[in-house]
Amino acid sequence: MSVAMPKPSEAVLDRRDEIVSALQAIVPGEGVVDATDEMRAFETDGLTAYRQLPLVVVLPDTVDQVSRVLAYCHRNDIPVVPRGAGTSLSGGALPLQDGVLLVLSKFNRVLEIDYDNRSAVVQPGVTNLGITKAVEHRGFYYAPDPSSQIACSIGGNVAENSGGVHCLKYGLTANNVLGIEFVTIEGEVMRLGGKHLDAEGGYDLLGLMTGSEGLLGVVTEVTVRILQKPETARAVLIGFPTSEQAGECVAEIIAKGIIPGGMEMMDRPAIHAAEDFVQAGYPRDVEALLIVELDGPQAEVDHLLAEVEAIGNTNGAVTCRVSQSEDERAAFWAGRKAAFPAVGRISPDYYCMDGTIPRKELPKVLAGMKALSEKYDLRVANVFHAGDGNLHPLILYDANKEGELHRAEEFGNDILRLCVAVGGVLTGEHGVGVEKRDLMPEMFGEDDLKHQQRVKCAFDAKHLLNPGKVFPTLHRCAELGRMHVHKGQVAFPDLPRF
């Protein structure tokens, strides 16, 4: 494995049989998986370039079992890696050799639907699309829609603050989660938020937990906001002779004050791969394609469609096609949703990146990625959330060819460095995990990272939850909390100290 992970504890490895027996007493039956062949299914997540067998896999089905497993691991200094559906693309659920892999897939029930308060209470193993399926018969839906929504779980969405094609207008997971129940590493069950719209007074701990990548606690219940389906939704395909022109069109649409329900962009390799796979009706003679969806009252949608078409034409669009039926609109999105597996048909392997940039920098970054593609001699297909600047370059490589994985990793690192250099960030929705962990100093100074780790210490002083992820260098909590004394004087001596 080309990424360094924490050195496994020999003391834990030596006690494996004892640990497995203790966990079997907490989660009986088939809830503990310890055979090597059976654990292979859990050795990686969506970032399949990296693999590691866990010490043992535990699949609890009650909150009490989760609590007891975590409390046992805390008492015995055993690392724990929480896992949902395993669709993470940043290695966030990569197991540890000396760690328990805590899998929440049995928590798969919709517990309550409250249409009056426009909310649903679900267990973390419910799929993203499963929430919409549970409420769509009443004209409601759950807005965040990652491309993996048919498989990814809502608990994983909370851990990574997942997005999707319709998050430009309706927000990320953080904007659609009202409350959670979670279990601390000590086994304490806690609740944050609820069905009410706004957080309670004090620190926004719900916001802190959303996107915490399994480093602070294990989510066991989620209360989400559900929305009424808009009266009308229509999508338009706009093709351009260059990616730069498509990028300029995106910037102008937003500058005009138009906020589409979704606005996605694909370049020629992605367009052809998706069209071959899905036959969505995409034009093949363009270098870049925008999918722009407008939703709301019909009169508003009709007006905005005309505005968007005009903006596309002023930016050199060579084709423009508006959906004429719900089936056609769904087909437009089916191609985009299937873009990742479609690209998998044209390359033995691909590395999916995730960086976010200011929209105005889109043409510059696309040109930069083209130059990097030539530098590393690897193809790249671009599929991304153009409206909010969240890029998903797919670097095509063959892991069976010597050195290609390493070149793909370096290519991806340079893309992320470019994103930060133009004022962007390392991740928009996939999380840091192990993939971007060693790039954190590109974006944060040492003091920034230490302050983030102090938050980690407040929740998990022993660093047992998902160690080896997010932070390139992990400091012990005692080091982070120590007071510096110079020549007998502490800093700011007039401040009261407790």
Automatic annotation (TrEMBL):
FAD-binding PCMH-type domain location = 50-229
The UniProt keywords, alphabetically, are: FAD, Flavoprotein, Oxidoreductase
Q: Does the keyword Flavoprotein apply?
A: yes
Q: Which GO terms describe its molecular function?
A: FAD binding; oxidoreductase activity
Cited InterPro entries: FAD-bd_oxidored_4_C (IPR004113), FAD-bd_PCMH (IPR016166), FAD-bd_PCMH-like_sf (IPR036318), FAD-bd_PCMH_sub2 (IPR016169), FAD-linked_Oxase-like_C (IPR016164), FAD-linked_OxidoTrans_Type4 (IPR051914), Oxid_FAD_bind_N (IPR006094), Vanillyl_alc_oxidase_C-sub2 (IPR016171)
Q: Which organism is it from?
A: Fulvimarina manganoxydans
This protein's cofactor list reads:
FAD
Q: What is this protein called?
A: Glycolate oxidase
